[in-house]
Specification:
This protein is of the alpha/beta class and 245 residues long. The protein has 9 helices and 11 strands. The strands form 3 sheets. A 6-stranded parallel beta sheet has the order 5-4-1-9-10-11, sandwiched between helices. A 3-stranded antiparallel beta sheet has the order 7-6-8, with helices on one face. It starts with 7 loop residues before the first strand and ends in a 12-residue tail after the last helix. The structure holds adenosine-5-diphosphoribose. Adenosine-5-diphosphoribose binds next to helix 1.
Length: 245
């Protein structure tokens, strides 16, 4: 049961948390995403130029997401919530692995690959529980459907809501993100000054901004360690055995 005084953990996740579920990160491969240049598959210009290629790319990614399963990092976060902690997740990922692990408060900053939307009216959205999007698939207003994801160069409508969530954190846990993409990278600036921030990423020692605690481990290893400590003491704290600044 959640109590009034539950500490509020805000978790910011990036591609790294899904890496151990078999979904590739973006910047692991010289800036190529699954062997494609970002500007060929993840921009409004690419969709205007070659919609078929963009739809095919996202159809392939969607199939990968459906086959993937949550890993120990996703599962540990969901377990913490079940244990009574207030947990809010803001993810840059377009997969649904947090939800399938059991997390209930998940904000998708960059959209959701399992949703299609009208290319003329963002409010017309359609869940893709099965199947994919083909050229010629249209919304009820007659416009081509596209994935409900935020492409490079597009506004990030959920950004304000994400800032509000981060501003209400007692502790911020950042997992598996190179913090390279704006405005997501700026989210940490909304954190309260007295909230500790912990980054879990194999590259944490290089990536962590000043004042951020770092855990240089894979998410599937580091997150269960932290969650274990928090559950053991029923509070959010910075366990020195796991962490160094
Ligand atoms: N556990 C934790 N972190 C990991 C793991 C792992 N097992 N494997 C890799 N990482 C880390 C990498 O060290 C890197 O810092 O995950 C991070 C992935 O960084 P990016 O590929 O840049 O992904 P992300 O930060 O999520 O990208 C942000 O960019 O392409 C866009 O919109 C897309 O949401 C995405 C955004």
């Amino acid at each position: 049961m959640e109590s009034i005084s539950s500490p509020h953990l805000v978790v910011l996740t990036g591609a790294g948390i899904s890496a151990e579920s078999g979904l590739k990160t973006f910047r692991a491969n010289e800036g190529l995403w699954e062997n494609h240049r970002i500007e060929d598959v993840a921009t409004p210009e690419a969709f205007a130029r070659n919609p078929e290629q963009v739809l095919r790319f996202y159809n392939e990614r969607r199939e990968q997401v459906r086959r993937a399963v949550p890993n120990p990092a996703h599962l540990a976060l969901a377990e913490l919530e079940r244990h009574g902690f207030r947990v809010s997740i803001v993810t840059q990922n377009i997969d649904d692995l947090h939800e399938r692990a059991g997390s209930r408060n998940v904000l998708h900053l960059h959209g959701d690959i399992l949703v299609a939307r009208s290319s003329s009216d963002p409010a017309l959205r359609y869940p893709l529980t099965h199947g994919d999007i083909q050229l010629g698939d249209r919304c009820e207003k007659g416009s081509q459907l596209r994935p409900d994801v935020v492409w490079f160069g597009e506004p990030v409508p959920a950004y304000g809501a994400a800032c509000d969530i981060v501003a209400a954190a007692d502790l911020v846990l950042v997992i598996g993100t190179s913090l390279a993409v704006m405005p997501a990278a700026a989210l940490l600036e909304s954190a309260p000054l007295d909230a500790d921030v912990i980054l879990v990423d194999p590259q944490a020692h290089d990536l962590a901004p000043p004042g951020v605690w770092s855990v240089a481990r894979a998410a599937g290893e580091g997150i269960p360690l932290l969650v274990h400590e928090w559950q053991r003491q029923s509070r959010l704290w910075v366990p020195e055995t796991v962490i160094r600044q």
